[in-house]
Design goal:
This protein is an alpha+beta fold. The chain has one domain. The protein contains 1 helix and 3 strands, in the order E-E-E-H. The chain has a 3-stranded antiparallel β-sheet, with helices on one face. A hairpin with a 4-residue loop joins strand 2 and strand 3. The longest helix is centred in the last third of the chain and has 12 residues. It is globular.
Length: 43
């Protein structure tokens, strides 16, 4: 079984997200797309 993708959120006036797989974004839409792809379902 694959390891879970852990998300770290940073806020310094703007949000930024990092995933334990090495992926990162400043877009909430891209974050939801990434998590949907990881789970194999669309959010």
């Amino acid at each position: 079984m694959s390891e879970p993708h852990l998300i770290v959120t940073e806020y310094d006036g703007r949000f930024h997200w990092w995933c334990s797989c090495g992926w990162d974004t400043g877009s909430r839409v891209q974050l939801h797309q990434h998590l949907g792809n990881v789970k194999g379902v669309r959010p």
